[in-house]
Design goal:
CATH class: Alpha Beta
CATH topology: Rossmann fold
Number of strands: 7
CATH superfamily: Vaccinia Virus protein VP39
Helix content: 25-40%
Shape: globular
Length: 160
């Protein structure tokens, strides 16, 4: 994930990571392969995907993980913890659900990030007008962002 290259050596300080939209744990695998071994909280709506992720992740990662079968919007609304790194990688097929780029959801994400921590959002651009509107809302909550482009993906990296 190019976001991790952008964050660079600050990854060493990421001790507690929240991943909204676990998929098969690719973010955790990338960090593991780079030598980083933080604690993870994985929040995934699809219980089968969450189970698969826990099976395919290296044992050293899965042993230090807290898998939560829950809708990300519900989790973040009730989140009482702060993380060094919050990764949002939520899709229905290739569509980012509308709630992910609402001011309410983004503010709740920001509240769950420790000062000096990072927010990473993966967004697939299907319509430029949708991305432009989403980016405007993201910038209103996270004014200091970098947007990295990888094909149709826009990866937002913000320092809190």
């Amino acid at each position: 994930m190019i976001a991790f290259t952008h964050i660079g050596s600050a990854l060493a300080d990421m001790k507690d990571v929240l991943v909204l939209g676990t998929g098969l744990g690719s973010a955790a695998n990338i960090l593991y392969n780079k030598g980083y071994k933080p604690q993870y909280t994985f929040v995934e709506y699809d219980s089968t995907i969450l189970q698969w992720a826990m099976k395919v992740l290296p044992k050293e990662v899965s042993d230090k993980s807290n898998p939560i079968h829950m809708d990300a919007a519900v989790y973040i609304e009730t989140c009482g913890k702060q993380y060094n790194l919050l990764i949002t990688d939520i899709f229905n097929s290739r569509v980012v659900p509308a709630f992910v780029t609402t001011e309410k959801f983004l503010k709740q994400c920001r509240r769950c990030i420790m000062p000096g921590g990072y927010f990473v959002l993966n967004y697939i651009v299907l319509q430029n007008t949708d991305w432009q509107a989403a980016e405007q809302v993201i910038r209103s909550v996270f004014p200091n962002i970098t947007v990295l482009q990888n094909g149709i993906n826009r990866i937002v990296v913000a320092r809190v």
